[in-house]
Each structure stands twice: as structure tokens, then as C-alpha cells.
Amino acid sequence: MTRADLLESILERLAGAGAAKALFSADETAAWPAGALETLVNASMLQQAQPASVVECTGCEENCLMPLHVFPAEGNRLARAFIACDKRDDVGRVSVDFCRLEQWQTTGKLIADVLAHLLGLSRSASHAADGKQWNIGVLKGKKHQSPVTLLAGDSLMLALAGHAVPLIEVLAIEENALTLDKDELIRRVDKPAGETGDPVARRIRIKARVHEEKVKGTKAFIQVVAKEEGISASRIKQLVSTKRVPVKVRIGLTTALKPPASKNPRSRY
Questions:
Q1: Residue ranges of the domains in the chain?
Q2: Residues 6 or more apart from 246 whose CB is under 8 A from it?
Q3: Could you read off the pLDDT of 26-80 as tens digits, one per residue?
């Protein structure tokens, strides 16, 4: 297993759990690339979880998952953990080393916090009611800025500037550090999806952002979007306005408004 394979496996398991929690046993992490567990723990992507209550039995070749029995230290007797096999008559009690009870976990919130740190952003604690969306912060490019959101669905995605970027495409384990391709995300910010100098596409995108913030209950939703776009709140209001602009007719080098149609046109006869 490579480090890229490991990271993809972790993100897939978390997505499969709805980003609520993904657990990794000591037996599993023992097979990871050397140093990978320490790297992910140091990056705060993984944290230690409650000890396991079920482990794989090593009493025979069947490797059944069995519940643990744990007895604390008493007097001169050390603490002990074991499996009581009820599958075969020739196995009985199987001792289990306490180090095998260790588990690590990751959650959508942990990933969001890590991403905010790697991007140098101050993360909002807010998330969607369904627990599958986390606001990372606002990422600034050279021309634009955009909120970055972690989304959990069939896979973990980053939503920004109209783009949906698979997290595995920009997150990596390199040597002894977790890295994020910030430059690629900034390029996405400066080239919003569906916008290549097209004012209609820009208007549609901005209207969608205003609607999103309004539905979320953001009080100053116009100002929020204006700050993201780097333009005034009054300009945002103009872009999202549903009022029709009078049609202009170009005549030679001048521009004039079409005269209103007469309500009572004169008869030609």
C-alpha cells in the first residue's frame, strides 16, 4: 500500500460513513506505510478513539471477529484482555495484547479543521444540519475570492467558485507531512466555473451565491457576497435585480431609448 492509496482509503471510508466517523484499528494501522500513522496524527487528521471492544481472534485460522473480555489489575495480578471462543472446542480462551485495542478515528469536522489550517484560513464552526457540509473559510485569489466548503457525498469534495474538486486530487501525504495543493484551489477561485468573461454567466453565479446565503439565514447576505466578489453591495443588488433594463437602440454613433408605443395610433386613412 502506498501513501496515496492509504489516504484515498481513509477518505473513502469517511465518505461511506457520511463523514460522521471512520474508525481504524491497531491491526489495520500496523499494515500502513511506515510513519504514516504518526504523520496523520501529528496533522490532527486522526485522533485516538475509545479502545476496541471487538477484535479479530488469532486462536485459529478462521480469524473471527470476537468480543473482548477485559479485567483490570487486581492486587499482584496485571490487567488482562482475552477472547472466549465459543466456535470451537479446541480453542477456549485467547489472550489479547492491550496494544491491539487501540483505535484511531477521523470525522468531517477534523478534516475541515485540517483543511482550514493548511489553507491558512480562520474556519467557521458552522455546518449543514445534515452533518455533511462544513464551511472552511474564504480563499482569496488574485482576481476573486470564494468560500470553500467541504461536502460529503459519494466522496469528499471541495466546493469553491462553482467548482467541485475531489479532495483526494489536492490532498497528499508527502514524506512526513500532510499537504494541500493551495495553488490549484486558487486557480479555481480565479476562474469561476462557467465564467469566461461572460457577464450572463457571472450574473447567474452571483445570484446563486446570494440565494444560498439567504436560504442559510445569513443576515447581511448581500454584503457577504459583495466581499467575496470584491465589489460593492449596490453592484451586487444590481446584478441580482429582476427589473428589466430599458431596451436601447443604437443609431449611428448615438444611443437612444426606444419611444414608447402609442396607445391610440392614428389611422392611416
A1: 3-106, 194-243
A2: 257, 258
A3: 889 999 999 999 999 999 999 999 887 777 787 677 777 777 777 777 777 777 7
The torsion of the CA quartet 92, 93, 97, 100, rounded to 10 degrees, works out to 60
Residue written as grid cell 467575496: 228
Any alpha helices (H) in 17-169, and if so which ranges?
Answer: 26-29, 36-42, 108-119
Within a 10 A sphere around the Cβ of 234, how many other Cβ atoms? Answer: 10
Label the pairing between strands 254-257 and 248-251: antiparallel
CA atoms within 13 A on the CB side of 117: 13
Among residues of the chain, what percentage have pLDDT more than 90? 34
Verdict on whether the full-model pTM lies above 0.85: no
Q: Which three cell numbers stand for residue 38?
A: 504518526
CB neighbour list of residue 65: distance below 8 Å, 6 or more residues apart: 54, 55, 56, 57
